[in-house]
Known about the structure:
The protein has helices at 8-13, 34-43, 46-51, 53-66, 81-85, 107-111, 123-136, 149-158, 166-174, 176-200, 217-233, 257-260, 276-283, 302-316, 336-349; strands at 73-74, 90-93, 97-100, 142-147, 204-209, 238-239, 242-243, 246-250, 267-269, 288-293, 322-326. It is an alpha/beta fold.
Amino acid sequence: MSELQNDRFLRALLKQPVDRTPVWMMRQAGRYLPEYRASRSEAGSFMDLCRNTELATEVTLQPLDRFPEIDAAILFSDILTIPDAMGLGLRFEAGEGPKFDRPLRTQADVDKLFVPDMGSDLKYVMDAVSSIRKALNGRVPLIGFSGSPWTLATYMIEGGSSKNFSIIKRMMFDEPKMLHQILEVLADSVAAYLNAQIEAGAQAVQLFDTWGGVLTTRDYKEFSLNYMQRVISQLKRENDGRKVPVIMFTKGGQGWLEDMADVGADCLGLDWTIDIDKARERVGDKVALQGNMDPNVLYASPDRIREEVGSILEKFGTGSGHVFNLGHGIHPEINPEHAGAFFKAVADLSPKYHG
């Protein structure tokens, strides 16, 4: 594997000194870029794009070619690849998002669950990781990712996206044993999936717990955090002679930062509902922090975007341990020039915080 030319992202995750705050953006390879839309239409469908090694590589690199300030690439894929490989019949409905033809509703459904074979069922993901890593040629590190067990379970049980999570929460309250059985299989699947990505070339990994924030404190600890800890405890933390940092991101998780900092991740992702200075006070030196600009700021003028970036950098203050990002993914309608203003602002304004 070629030598890494820019490792400030990996260094910041491990709280090592950097020359400026590294930056990347969730969903940075996506619908806001016209070149992405062209590749997607060439592929035919979203999952066809994920399964096409050449096109998945192309779209992962598109934002890096457009915005030279970006410090990490993230694998182009989807969080629902694991449930898809479990045979639940994933399809994407136009305007409605993901749907499963065979959601988990009965004990018989749950008993059929299995840990997918990473070398066959999910080989296309590993092929994409290897291909992207090769194409990057050491430019920046590659991030692998997975949905958290709880987040994957919400889609698998609800049958798709949900507003009130009534089906999974009914199961959680009335049949907790069944839900725990699902989450155990998912945790072991996610760990195997991330380890396979690391072996294929991912240099850091992120757990996306998109729906952990819909739980009470008690239920978050039992049904979400507990299983992310089970994943993290199984991960390969070194490869190619380098540490492989782990980022854990619970959207809406600002109430539980202290608990989250204790489960073994190197970095916590923050959404925009907490001030980063307060988060830093609460977690101390235990973990690095990633975030946390409101994605909607990117609808504002480039000058206003720059001002907001400056404000967050100032709140975090001096020293390493901050990876600049949005508090969630970039919205599809954002003007790419505004994304460019965001990346440039971080690169321009952050060096003074690093002695």
